[in-house]
Amino acid sequence: xxxxxxxxxxxxxxxxxxxxxxxxxxxxxxxxxxxxxxxxxxxxxxxxxxxxxxxxxxxxxxxxxxxxxxxxxxxxxxxxxxxxxxxxxxxxxxxxxxxxxxxxxxxxxxxxxxxxxxxxxxxxxxxxxxxxxxxxxxxxxxxxxxxxxxxxxxxxxxxxxxxxxxxxxxxxxxxxxxxxxxxxxxxxxxxxxxxxxxxxxxxxxxxxxxxxxxxxxxxxxxxxxxxxxxxxxxxxxxxxxxxxxxxxxxxxxxxxxxxxxxxxxxxxxxxxxxxxxxxxxxxxxxxxxxxxxxxxxxxxxxxxxxxxxxxxxxxxxxxxxxxxxxxxxxxxxxxxxxxxxxxxxxxxxxxxxxxxxxxxxxxxxxxxxxxxxxxxxxxxxxxxxxxxxxxxxxxxxxxxxxxxxxxxxxxxxxxxxxxxxxxxxxxxxxxxxxxxxxxxxxxxxxxxxxxxxxxxxxxxxxxxxxxxxxxxxxxxxxxxxxxxxxxxxxxxxxxxxxxxxxxxxxxxxxxxxxxxxxxxxxxxxxxxxxxxxxxxxxxxxxxxxxxxxxxxxxxxxxxxxxxxxxxxxxxxxxxxxxxxxxxxxxxxxxxxxxxxxxxxxxxxxxxxxxxxxxxxxxxxxxx
Length: 623
Ligand code: SF4
Prior knowledge:
Blueprint: H1 24-35, E1 42-47, H2 58-62, H3 72-83, E2 87-92, H4 93-103, H5 110-129, E3 133-137, H6 144-157, E4 163-166, H7 168-172, H8 174-180, E5 186-188, H9 195-203, E6 215-219, E7 222-225, H10 251-254, E8 270-273, E9 276-279, H11 288-292, E10 295-298, H12 301-315, E11 319-322, H13 331-343, E12 349-356, H14 358-363, H15 366-373, E13 376-384, H16 388-393, H17 400-410, E14 417-424, H18 431-444, E15 448-453, H19 461-468, E16 483-484, E17 487-488, H20 492-502, H21 526-540, H22 549-566, H23 571-583, H24 587-603, H25 605-613, H26 617-622
Parallel strand pairs: 1-2, 1-3, 3-4, 4-5, 8-11, 11-12, 12-13, 13-14, 14-15
Antiparallel strand pairs: 5-6, 6-7, 9-10, 16-17
């Protein structure tokens, strides 16, 4: 990448550089010089709303049910920018939007205002920061449409203001993002804590083009990128985020972090933290290796403990949710980390929101013991499937025996809420194989099972496999507000809520496919009904047999949460909450719940068809 240094101090010389690029690398450098025609010292970092405007349910926002995390990656970027002397500001539009809806008393004005409010927030922040560059984060596929809107708006209002997007989704689907989001000039791919600053230094005349890495862009409508990576080393990772004026302690008041709000102490101040990056495994549906590279890099234990202490001192945080993809990597370190929390008397509780590798815990039970002693209150387990063939195909690092072992181990820690991640809809997965997943999860006996339909993410092995087999297409054509490439990415519960609204008066047929040919490979549409049957079988049906008071209390907490905070017209949750009340010796509350369930059922043809197929009507009469 040798190019004559045509820069003058902090300003790039662009004249005479409109040559036809001889290689993608040179073309990218050429474009950098054209886009950044002056120095770049002031940076605005924007976190987009996570949810499409027209899918936002005001009631759910008011119940603080949408995800709302302090933007960890942008915080790390903030830390590095500060260290290098750049002026920067954060704008978290997800928080701003949730805050606005939460505090707005006049519900009538909300739908029209939310289409404007993010623009007003951007305008105000631009006025305050006067940025030379906007960095736009996109961690989640569901923000895809939002970054297009934001980039378009910014370019319309400030045509000369360069925009660089980064984050997991952007790194997974760079070509699709650039082709749709015309306002974005460059992508800062993968972990860009260092490479983003390298680019700024280069623009400001503090280095050569040799330091440029991980940049993607369109040249003549063709996607090109710099292959070179500048990933943070273990030493580089020993920093914690600088959130500037973001109200870290308030995030939990307006949304969710992790999956365990119902189980963590009421009123807890929650934030997230990352102790290591990457994952040792290579599951074919997972994009972690694409984003973080191969293997795991762990921060020093002291740095992680310092961060927990800092969060407590500065923001009063007393519960953390780990963002790690492989939290139990390196048993010795993991145990030392958990013991460090105890030794330093940090006084926190914590949960593991990303699926823990089941085999890591099964073969080293001491990690669970240390976890429990250090304040662990909840764990998600990455089970995914109960079928050996499917587990092999998706290269899952855990087998059936590991899952059964963990199920057994977790019975010793009833204070820890144990939840499985399960996936259905793998390529060519039959109903019989899904039934194996049901059987395994039942045997494990975890407290809850979160079931998702497979979302094939670009840049994963399974995505390529499904393209080859003609199961999906690469391109934005099949995407809409709810899906990406024809596959849904929103939470299944969310999708069923939307479906229920549509079918409230006229329900489509509902089929229990497990009573049919188990060799059948269901269609994507049929997976909706299968999901609901699995949800019932794994999460509700067991309540009928349950007599253990502690487990019933756990079920009570979750079902109360579903009925009162997640959705208020869910007859299945209301019915089973009533059954739990009765088993716990509270007939009055039981009666109230059952009558609520009946009321919801009377209003919904959608639920009536499901109650009928699942033979649930008699429970309403008997309880
Ligand atoms: S274990 Fe989890 S994080 Fe690791 S590759 Fe598999 S799905 Fe991804």
